[in-house]
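ok new one. same drill as before - structure tokens go in, u give me an amino acid for every spot. 425 of them this time. try not to just spam alanines like last time pls lmao
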């Protein structure tokens, strides 16, 4: 049985470690988060993901998965650490650097090193490989180095780790072959071998494609608001064309992929990426756009009940969530803000979280920023009895309202908000 060392036990590293353990490998997960390590060794998890808790519990009890704060000798090393942006939107590769440096004392000949972290083009060739070579190893002959980016959807990670096509980019052909062999232990989807730089770019373009198309939908929402048009109906009708698939507008783009990855391309080729750059600007402008519309329906010092801090529905991930910026902007404008999110973890956010009842008490508006299942059908009786003004502004087009006495706004009728402001004066 081969041994795998997974460095980074976050939203990708932990599920990946668990899947390899399920497949029969001895797996040690490494993280600097001592709480995460302690929980994992008890068979518990520190993140939310469908099915992950039960899987981790089983493989830990079976003795195939354990955690440590430092690496160990292994046959395969998988680096799955964060790659955030600096304030100037250039890639922060310090976590990748540290992870690579930390495994050096444990490398042996014929080891396979795989970087799963999302990284700018040429990071494997120009950044990771030199670190390992600097320790005296011949890359591609003694140590097999590859980039294999994750491509999974939160909430379906355990399914998609198995079923999705996997792109394996080796620094040379034998490195790609060795890495592909590792993933073939449980991946049923097609495993495609290519170069490291091509794998890096393909991952970035997958998320950039989505970011650019969301920007188009968000720009449509702004144009429709200006012209008095139902943007959601426009999208629905345009998508009846067999070759059109417009995305849905929203409060902005969050998560560690769509809100970050396009900058990795812009950083490497700024003059050649104006479309990608402008899409980022459009999506980054949406929190301000949302707050400007809150101002149309809620007077200054009024109370806004924010529903949802996570960047997407039914997960606990708040990384890069536009909701965080929206809450900050509302507070800057002196609104009272109360937040209800049944999935967010208080230790992850600086804003205090409330219950549904506390959040809507004397509120002037419910601002829906996340499409959690719990928000699909809200208690309309409580909305009527507890809220000062029963108004919902749904930036996700998610809530289903039956009562005609509850004012409901989404991106289909933003232009009608001013009418409401007039009646409140």
């Amino acid at each position: 049985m081969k041994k795998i060392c997974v460095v980074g036990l976050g939203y990708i590293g932990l599920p990946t470690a668990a899947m390899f353990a399920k497949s029969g490998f001895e797996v040690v997960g490494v993280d600097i988060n001592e709480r995460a390590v302690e929980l994992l060794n008890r068979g518990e998890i520190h993140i939310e993901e469908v099915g992950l808790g039960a899987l981790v519990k089983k493989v830990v009890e079976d003795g195939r998965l354990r955690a440590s704060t430092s690496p160990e000798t292994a046959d395969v090393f998988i680096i799955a650490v964060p790659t955030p942006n600096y304030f100037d939107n250039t890639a922060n590769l310090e976590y990748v650097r540290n992870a690579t440096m930390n495994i050096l004392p444990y490398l042996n000949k014929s080891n396979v090193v795989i970087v799963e972290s999302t990284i700018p083009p040429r990071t494997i060739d120009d950044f990771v490989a030199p670190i390992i070579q600097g320790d005296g190893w011949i890359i591609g002959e003694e140590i097999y180095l590859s980039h294999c980016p994750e491509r999974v959807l939160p909430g379906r990670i355990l399914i998609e780790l198995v079923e999705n096509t996997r792109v394996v980019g080796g620094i040379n052909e034998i490195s790609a072959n060795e890495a592909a062999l590792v993933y073939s232990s449980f991946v049923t989807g097609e495993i495609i071998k290519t170069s490291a730089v091509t794998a890096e770019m393909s991952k970035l373009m997958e998320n950039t494609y989505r970011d650019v198309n969301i920007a188009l939908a968000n720009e449509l929402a702004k144009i429709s608001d200006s012209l008095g048009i139902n943007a959601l109906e426009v999208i629905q009708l345009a998508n009846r064309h067999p070759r059109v698939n417009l995305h849905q507008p929203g409060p902005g783009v969050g998560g560690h992929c769509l809100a970050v990855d396009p900058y990795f391309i812009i950083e490497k080729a700024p003059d050649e990426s104006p479309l990608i750059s402008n899409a980022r600007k459009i999506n980054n402008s949406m929190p301000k756009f949302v707050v400007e519309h809150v101002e149309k329906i809620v007077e200054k010092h009024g109370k806004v009940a924010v529903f949802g801090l996570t960047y997407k529905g039914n997960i606990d991930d708040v990384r890069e969530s536009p909701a965080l910026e929206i809450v900050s902007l509302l507070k800057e404008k002196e609104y009272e803000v109360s937040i209800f999110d049944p999935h967010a973890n208080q230790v992850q956010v600086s804003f205090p979280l409330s219950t549904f009842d506390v959040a809507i008490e004397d509120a002037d508006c419910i601002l829906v920023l996340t499409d959690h299942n719990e928000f699909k059908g809200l208690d309309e009786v409580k909305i009527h009895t507890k809220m000062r003004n029963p108004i919902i502004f749904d930036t996700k087009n998610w809530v289903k309202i039956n009562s005609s006495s509850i004012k409901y706004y989404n991106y289909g009728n933003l232009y009608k908000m001013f009418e409401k402001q007039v009646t409140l004066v």
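Residues 196-227 form the longest helix (32 residues). and btw The first strand starts at residue 3 and ends at 7.
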